[in-house]
Design a protein that fits this description.
The protein is built from 12 helices and 14 strands. The protein is α/β, with parallel strands linked by helices. It has 2 domains: about 10-245, Type I PLP-dependent aspartate aminotransferase-like (Major domain) (Aspartate Aminotransferase, domain 2, 3-Layer(aba) Sandwich); about 250-375, Aspartate Aminotransferase, domain 1. Helix 3 runs parallel beside helix 9 and helix 9 packs across helix 12.
């Protein structure tokens, strides 16, 4: 059996090596490393795939979130509602702009922000909601957009883990996550479902005025070269990464299919086990399984994590410390929050290897080791 990895980017690359190598060589031969046709083609193809009118590429997913908040003219002290059960970047982007993160609970089944908790957290200072499509499943966007409309709030989707996820509205219409809110953001970190061979990110919007401002902010606040209208930053996706991503974008739906097949295997292996809850799959959105995350009950989660490592099985805990308990948010009142469900999840979740190159033999071994520990 081939060695186990959380994410097997090497084998994935070997399968598309010829395409990728030719694309990268083309960039090197052109010597157009910033901007240019290759970047433009990727941006156009990504916009078409995601169903968004405008795509603004940038250096990483954290920059994408920060630039989005800057473009909405959010001011220090403005409140941004966000889950605490997320990667730190979601909240860090707000904090660096001196906005106030307001942490709320997530849904126990989807791991995504709870709309009822959003409604309760709104104050006169609230300006935006940042739903996170965690682990590859969409938040309840129809309800969230309705709340935002009632209270005149912006919605910034953190779609770093769910690119390609289809969300179905009650009227039957379907949109990709990242194209539903006022602004969507994503990351192209190598382990993502659409991963670069380095850092990268993108911002999505259908609003032409917002798109112009987002692009301006990402390029030193320039309206045209050497004319700087607003305070911006320097956040670019280079042409080499764009060439790689454009190749991988063509394979993205196939990659998602492979992840779903792997998830199906795990689901069957752990079905109806009293101590294991497999990932929930909401009827109105198609999980893309960036992670395959179990909830354990009556099991020593950290003990399992160690046992798996001792047996050559990687696993990860996303996330062991929720944002509101991180020291960096003490100044924003993080320690004053009581979020029992978030705390409960952080003590019980564990993610198993999940990627496009999973083999049944590998999954059988992983599942057997999980069950060996849980059943002892």
């Amino acid at each position: 059996m081939k060695g186990l990895q959380m994410v097997d980017t090497k084998t994935q690359y070997q399968k598309i090596k010829k395409e990728v190598d030719e694309a990268v060589l083309g960039v090197l031969e052109s010597s157009v490393f910033i901007g240019g046709k290759v970047l433009g083609d990727f941006v156009d193809n990504l916009a078409k795939y995601n169903g968004s009118k405008h795509v603004i590429p940038c250096a990483n997913g954290t920059d994408a979130l920060q630039i989005a908040m800057m473009a909405l003219d959010l001011q220090p002290g403005d409140e941004v509602i966000t889950p605490s059960f997320t990667y730190i970047a979601t909240v860090e982007a707000a904090a660096v702009l001196r906005l106030k993160p307001v942490f709320v609970e997530v849904d126990k089944h989807t791991f995504c922000i709870d709309p009822a908790a959003i409604e309760k957290a709104i104050t006169p200072k609230t300006k935006a909601i940042v739903p996170v499509h965690l682990y590859g499943q969409s938040a309840d966007m129809e309800t969230i957009m309705a709340i935002a409309a009632r209270h005149h709030l912006y919605v910034i989707e953190d779609n770093a883990q769910a690119i390609g996820c289809d969300y179905t509205f009650s009227d039957g219409s379907v949109k990709k996550t990242g194209s539903i809110g006022h602004i969507g953001t994503t990351s192209f970190y190598p382990s993502k479902n659409l991963g670069a061979y380095g850092d990268g990110g993108a911002i999505f919007t259908d609003d032409e005025t917002l798109a112009a401002k987002l692009k301006m902010i990402a390029h030193h606040g320039q309206s045209k070269r050497y004319y700087h209208d607003v305070v911006g930053c320097n956040s670019r996706l280079d042409a080499v990464q764009a060439a790689i991503l454009d190749i991988k974008l063509k394979h993205l739906d196939g990659y998602i299919g492979a992840r779903r097949k792997a998830a199906d295997y795990y689901d069957t292996a752990f079905a109806n086990h009293a101590k294991i809850t497999t990932p929930y799959r909401a009827a109105n959105n198609k999980h893309v399984f960036h992670q395959y995350t179990l909830i354990l009950d009556g099991v020593d989660r950290d003990g399992l994590h160690s046992f798996l490592a001792e047996n050559g099985v990687p696993s990860m805990i996303y996330y062991p410390v929720p944002c509101h308990k991180q020291k960096m948010f003490d100044a924003f009142g993080g320690s004053g929050y009581t979020l029992p469900l978030t705390d409960w999840l952080t003590e019980r979740v564990i993610s198993l290897p999940m990627h496009t190159e999973m083999e049944e033999e590998q999954q059988a071994f992983i599942a057997a080791k999980v069950l060996e520990f849980v059943n002892k």
